[in-house]
Amino acid sequence: xxxxxxxxxxxxxxxxxxxxxxxxxxxxxxxxxxxxxxxxxxxxxxxxxxxxxxxxxxxxxxxxxxxxxxxxxxxxxxxxxxxxxxxxxxxxxxxxxxxxxxxxxxxxxxxxxxxxxxxxxxxxxxxxxxxxxxxxxxxxxxxxxxxxxxxxxxxxxxxxxxxxxxxxxxxxxxxxxxxxxxxxxxxxxxxxxxxxxxxxxxxxxxxxxxxxxxxxxxxxxxxxxxxxxxxxxxxxxxxxxxxxxxxxxxxxxxxxxxxxxxxxxxxxxxxxxxxxxxxxxxxxxxxxxxxxxxxxxxxxxxxx
Length: 304
Hints:
Elements: E1 6-10, H1 22-27, H2 29-42, H3 46-52, H4 55-58, H5 61-79, E2 85-88, H6 92-100, H7 105-122, E3 128-134, H8 138-148, E4 152-159, E5 162-168, H9 169-179, E6 182-185, H10 198-209, E7 220-221, E8 228-229, H11 232-241, H12 249-258, E9 263-267, H13 272-280, E10 285-289, H14 292-303
Parallel strand pairs: 1-2, 1-9, 2-7, 9-10
Antiparallel strand pairs: 3-5, 3-6, 4-5, 7-8
Helix pairs in contact: 2-5, 2-7, 5-6, 5-7, 7-10, 8-9, 10-11
């Protein structure tokens, strides 16, 4: 294997777990300092929430988003390798942009904390919902959306036969019943990547404009267009638009593979993306990096 054909991918919300990344802090001074820096930057003890929970507090969107970013970047820096390309699922795109060298970690941390707050405030808790529909194609889901009525959008194209819808809670539930297949309502507090997030997108756009973004040292495949971008303007535009637009993960992985990616390393808590990539790019090599042992395993496999 070679870094020239290796891409790093970063997970989004839903991958969090109490205690994630804490083993790094006991083995790496750099990681411990990064956790302390995050607490100082945000003005509250995020590291304690990550370490001790409770789960309900970690699952709050304004905590989850900076927590996953922090753990992902700590893992990335400990891994110490530069891939040929990066991508991130939803929130994970911010980790990818930091890893690309285009966005300062402190700025990213502040942005995703605000992003979480804005998303939660855009729709009252309980008014929105997200449901994963399995085993149903896009055309059938779009037909179900039209039949059910109400404000519903396709939020995530996760993998073939794995599509997530989001919007008004009752409309989302009606759509899922119309679509058939296997349905699973997600444990989230807002309907992410739907038109209901427009107030959050409007507020976050101003904050994104206020931070410095540079051209990327490593190309990024963005969520909205699933294309390779590297200029500061394209990166900024993609981050702004992704709040209300679909996560085009299937196309992202297919395009990365078409451009030469043969190995994917999921850098962050959990193995969600590794599982999705298994369904999209069946012949690709796949690794996940979530603790010191998996870092060593992935590093030795890639650079051998």
